[in-house]
Specification:
With 220 residues, the protein is an alpha/beta fold. It has one domain: Aldolase class I (TIM Barrel), CATH 3.20.20. The protein has 9 helices and 8 strands. It has helices spanning 17-22, 47-56, 70-73, 75-79, 95-104, 151-163, 180-187, 196-199, 204-219; strands at residues 4-7, 30-35, 61-66, 84-88, 108-113, 131-135, 169-173, 191-194. It has an 8-stranded parallel beta sheet. Helix 5 links the parallel strand 4 (84-88) and strand 5. Helix 7 packs parallel to helix 9. The protein is globular, with a radius of gyration of 16 Å. Bound molecules: ribulose-5-phosphate (5RP) and cobalt (II) ion. Cobalt (II) ion binds at residues 8, 31, 33, 64, 173, 193. Residues 8, 31, 33, 64, 173, 193 line the site of cobalt (II) ion (CO). Pfam families: Ribul_P_3_epim. Pathway: Carbohydrate degradation. It catalyses: D-ribulose 5-phosphate = D-xylulose 5-phosphate.
Length: 220
């Protein structure tokens, strides 16, 4: 699978979201961080903004739900037209039911793991998901420092994914820069979220090209 880059609008100007989406035409996805003050100590945006963004851009939306009770709140994001909906393993009480519902509504289903959550207990769920998201910062805020301590888990996750046919995408999120992306790609990630490294750059298009080139070099 070719490298994919998913710029996080968490680092964009929330007053100009349609323009900010248009500023990254070379992005594969637009990463939308939904936070609720409960699962994480921050509040961002929700369904109405996702619905509005869906109409404002042709780039598929990669919704990362950092919310309590995703079993109740995740399916509407798929109904709203998100291309991918990711729920946290630490928050769901019925992952299989919720992941199946997301898929049945036409979206790709993702499962996210916090930095300290082991991947091995979720091996049997790989057949229920299209993407595994490994957080490389503690969730809640953009602009944090990449946690190298997660890299061995990325390698173990890649091995598990390959053992199950290699179909599941492996996403890393948090502190991904032109420098840290190489280590992530080397460990086996193939979908890269980048907020500050894209929207904090003077030229977001060039920043995406540079991230993609660095990751592709390492995966080759
Ligand atoms: O899920 C997230 C934080 O919880 C964000 O997607 C992530 O932090 C991206 O921002 P940056 O690239 O600036 O770290
Ligand atoms: Co995110």
């Amino acid at each position: 699978m070719p490298v994919q880059i998913s710029p996080s609008i968490l680092a964009a100007d929330f007053a100009r979201l349609a323009d900010e989406a248009a500023a990254v035409p070379n992005a594969d996805w637009l990463h939308v961080d939904v936070m609720d003050y409960h699962f994480v100590p921050n509040l961002t945006l929700g369904l109405p903004v996702v619905e509005a963004l869906r109409k404002a851009t042709a780039t598929p939306l990669d919704c990362h739900l950092m919310i309590a009770d995703p079993d109740r709140w995740a399916p509407p994001y798929a109904e709203a037209g998100a291309g991918s909906v990711t729920i946290h393993a630490e928050a769901t009480k019925a992952p299989i039911r919720t992941l199946r519902e997301i898929r049945s509504l036409g979206a790709r289903a993702g499962l996210a793991l916090n930095p300290a959550t082991a991947v091995e207990p979720y091996e049997d769920l790989l057949c229920e998901i299209d993407m595994l998201l490994l957080m490389t910062v503690e969730p809640g805020f953009g602009g944090q420092t990449f946690l190298d301590v997660v890299l061995p888990k990325v390698r173990r996750a890649r091995a598990l994914v390959e053992r199950h046919g290699g179909r599941v995408w492996l996403q890393v999120d948090g502190g991904v820069t032109a420098e840290t992306i190489e280590r992530c790609a080397d460990a086996g990630a193939d979908v890269f979220v980048a907020g500050s490294a894209v929207y904090g750059a003077s030229d977001p298009v060039a920043a995406i090209d540079a991230l993609r080139a660095a990751a592709t070099r390492k995966r080759a």
